[in-house]
Write a structure and sequence with these properties.
Layout: E1 3-9, E2 22-28, E3 37-45, H1 49-53, E4 75-83, E5 93-97, E6 103-106, E7 111-114, H2 132-145, E8 152-155, H3 161-172, E9 176-181, H4 184-193, E10 198-201, H5 207-214, E11 219-223, H6 228-235, E12 238-246, H7 266-270, E13 274-277, H8 287-299, E14 307-311, H9 316-324, E15 331-335
Parallel strand pairs: 8-9, 8-11, 9-10, 11-12, 12-13, 14-15
Antiparallel strand pairs: 1-2, 3-4, 3-6, 3-15, 4-5, 5-7
Helix pairs in contact: 2-3, 2-8
Length: 338
């Protein structure tokens, strides 16, 4: 492959990113050296955490933020087209941090896992339900949430890829699950397609009352994707000894000013709550167990998922911006190559 197309980080956004913060460039593809392989990206995952990196600050989970001129980072599922690495053969499908680009010369450090041949799972699902988002849901619940049969689990951003998987897993493990989503369409999706017991619309003025009505016995586990005012609201509903896995802060990614503080932090002490942030990469030793359960549930039709797919790499910036505004349902992907 003589040329690759890339989406480059052009400048730090002021609040919500705009199209001018990105740039599409084409450049010759480097030669493949010993220990490397050339991957053609088929699907690109667009993830909210990338917005944090665009501020240019150092984050403990990824190190230094982005600087102008860098290729936008992202997980992809791709196919090896040429290889000079003994572990990777032409035609093999891989999931890894290959970036917002059509082709890339990579080495082993960029690879997360092989896609099992003849798995029966669509390739795109290895970035979602059977990939990082499913693993994120499984790990947060298993290692921090520790839901027990009969407990009440509340999931924010429940129509999203991680939230929808978390709720379905909690249901499969015997819990009563309440989802929080924005708008009638997403709330219907949460109950009718993802099988949650109930959904609360955070955009409605009576959200707090609805949440109280749907959690008469309190909340044992809160799977937090959002933070901010919603976390404050849930803290008031938590039962003593409750657990809160924190996998995202959607309410704060696009803030141009200082983050607002929480009002109900005293309840963390008073109720002896366990609240912990985590990264999917910290649980690599549990990935085989998690992926086996997720793959089996998807194959059996017991884990439903939705995808919002943008067509072509040039569509990535617009799709990313819409995702940050809640314009997607389920996993936001870009189909890079047919």
């Amino acid at each position: 492959m003589s040329e690759s197309t890339h989406i480059i980080f052009r400048r730090k956004p002021n609040g919500l990113p705009i199209s001018e913060d990105f740039e599409l460039v084409r450049s010759p593809t480097p030669a493949v050296a010993d220990g490397q392989f050339l991957v053609e990206n088929l699907y690109l995952s667009l993830d909210p955490y990338v917005r944090m990196l665009m501020d240019g600050e150092t984050w403990t989970f990824r190190g230094a933020g982005l600087t102008p001129g860098q290729v936008m980072p992202g997980r992809c599922v791709g196919v090896v087209r040429e290889s000079r690495h003994p572990a990777y053969a032409a035609g093999q499908h891989l999931v890894g941090h290959f970036g917002w680009q059509t082709h890339a010369v990579q080495d082993e450090a960029a690879v997360e896992f092989y896609v099992p041949p003849q798995s029966g799972v669509p390739l795109s699902a290895w970035l979602g339900a059977c990939g990082a988002t499913g693993l994120t849901a499984w790990l947060g619940l298993q290692t921090i949430g520790e839901p027990r049969p009969g407990e009440t689990v509340v999931v924010s951003a429940a129509a999203g890829s991680v939230g929808s998987a978390a709720g379905q897993l909690a249901r499969a493990w015997g819990c009563r699950v309440i989802g929080i989503a924005g708008g009638d369409e997403k709330c219907r999706l949460v109950t009718e397609e993802f099988g949650f017991d109930a959904a609360c619309d955070y955009k409605r003025p009576d959200f707090a009352r609805d949440l109280r009505d749907q959690t008469p016995d309190g909340v044992d586990v809160y799977f937090d994707n959002v933070g901010g005012a919603m976390l404050d609201e849930i803290l008031a509903r938590m039962n003593p000894g409750g657990r809160i896995p924190v996998c995202g802060v959607l309410s704060q990614y696009n803030l141009a000013s200082e983050f607002p503080g929480l009002r109900n932090t005293r309840l963390i002490f008073d109720k002896r709550l366990r609240m912990q942030g985590y990264l999917v990469t910290e649980g690599r030793h549990l990935w085989p167990r998690a992926r086996a359960e997720l793959e089996a549930m998807v194959a059996a039709g017991k884990l439903n998922y939705r995808e919002t797919v943008a067509e072509g790499l040039p569509a990535a910036p617009g799709a990313f911006i819409r995702m940050l505004q809640g314009g997607n349902i389920g996993k936001q992907l870009v189909r890079v190559a047919p």
